[in-house]
Design a protein that fits this description.
Blueprint: E1 2-6, E2 9-14, H1 25-40, E3 46-51
Parallel strand pairs: 2-3
Antiparallel strand pairs: 1-2
Length: 61
């Protein structure tokens, strides 16, 4: 997972295109850490969550 910040916008990129960007337990923990750090940062006004490779599949149970 990558975190980039540009012009007050944080972009979180799920980077597992070989797995269609499916989220593992470790990736969920990483996502939560990034969201916490974004919340503590000043000057960020938006967050974009995206997936690498053009395909993703997420499901919640």
């Amino acid at each position: 997972m990558r975190l980039d910040v540009l012009d007050r916008v944080a972009r979180l990129t799920i980077d597992r295109p070989e797995k269609r960007n499916a989220m593992s337990a470790e990736m969920w923990r990483t996502l939560l850490r990034h969201v916490k750090s974004i919340g503590e940062a000043s000057g960020i006004s938006a967050v974009v969550l995206t997936g690498a490779g053009g395909a993703s599949r997420q499901a919640a149970t």
